[in-house]
Amino acid sequence: MATFEYQVGGVTMKVPTGCMFTHIIRGEGKTITYQNAGVDCGFVGALNAGFCNWRIDFTYADTDNKIYRTSRGKTHTECKINPMRDNAPQKLPRYGKACAYIHVNGVRRAGQCHHITK
């Protein structure tokens, strides 16, 4: 993730370069048995207040890139240095891709996708 700033209650929050958004997915074929996404800032992040007003969404799209399912995460108003979310196992109706996105203060900031193929 690149450095970005955002406002919370009139206070400017800064997220430093060096934070990584990760998306882990396990399964076989169109069956997802485990899925997790989150932010890892390492030592640099420990010096920061973290992410405020964040949520993580999971989306599923077909091979034509048409999203057919979204699992929208809860918006967390507390500030957290390492936001993370698991998603329930999924049985996908078609091949395509599974993606995770983090939104901070209502703005999509990063995402990662995995292609689901035969």
Descriptive overview:
- With 118 residues, the chain is mostly beta strands.
- It starts with a strand and ends with a strand.
Helix/strand layout:
Elements: E1 4-8, E2 11-15, E3 20-28, E4 31-40, H1 42-46, E5 54-62, E6 67-71, E7 84-87, E8 90-91, E9 96-104, E10 107-116
Antiparallel strand pairs: 1-2, 3-4, 4-7, 4-8, 5-6, 5-9, 9-10
Features:
single chain; mainly beta; 4-stranded antiparallel beta sheet; elongated
For the secondary structure, the number of strands is: 10
Backbone shape: elongated
- Overall pLDDT, averaged? 84
Radius of gyration using CA atoms only: 15 Å
Quaternary structure:
single chain
| Residue windows where pLDDT falls under 50 for at least 5 positions | none
Strand content: over 45%
Based on secondary structure, the structural category is mainly beta
What can be said about the biggest beta sheet?
Answer: 4 strands, antiparallel
Helix amount: under 10%
Structure at a glance:
The protein has 118 residues and is mainly beta.
